Amino acid sequence: MVPVKSFMVPADKFITVDRDVNVRQAAEIMRASGIGSIFVTREGKIIGILTDTDLVRRLVAAGLESTQTTVEQIMSAPILCIDENKTLLDANDLMAKEHIRHLGVSGAGGELVGMISVRDLVVFLTNLPRK
């Protein structure tokens, strides 16, 4: 089976925002970039992830104002990770077990080296040869 590291989005491609950015600005960046999540930083270090699900469940459903709420207030943290050498099937199983759609990928030293999403898994599975 294919290892996660061969299909992940590498950390150098992450789109990030500072923790003090308001949710509306982050959502506009996500829309313009065509992505469903954005990483949240403090002093340049990733501290969490803001996903489209966070926007719905923690902002809209809670009746919060997007320009008055910071991304740090509604982000998911800490980021759940999987080792880069685990398989895509392992990633799928972990996402299903934890009910999440974005999974950090950790390198040999435990650092965040990438991210994989349910969308990435769907693309991979769609391109498998059919019998």
Automatic annotation (TrEMBL):
Which Pfam families does the UniProt record give? CBS (PF00571)
| SMART domains in UniProt | CBS
Source superkingdom: Bacteria
Q: Which InterPro entries would you find in this protein's record?
A: CBS_dom, CBS_dom_sf, CBS_domain-containing
Q: Please give the SUPFAM superfamilies that the UniProt record associates with this protein.
A: CBS-domain pair
Q: Which residues form the CBS domain?
A: 8-66, 75-131
Q: Which Gene3D superfamilies match?
A: CBS-domain
Query: Which key words tag this protein in UniProt?
Result: CBS domain, Repeat
PROSITE patterns of this UniProt entry?
CBS (PS51371)
Supply the name of the protein.
CBS domain-containing protein
The species this protein belongs to is Candidatus Nitronereus thalassa
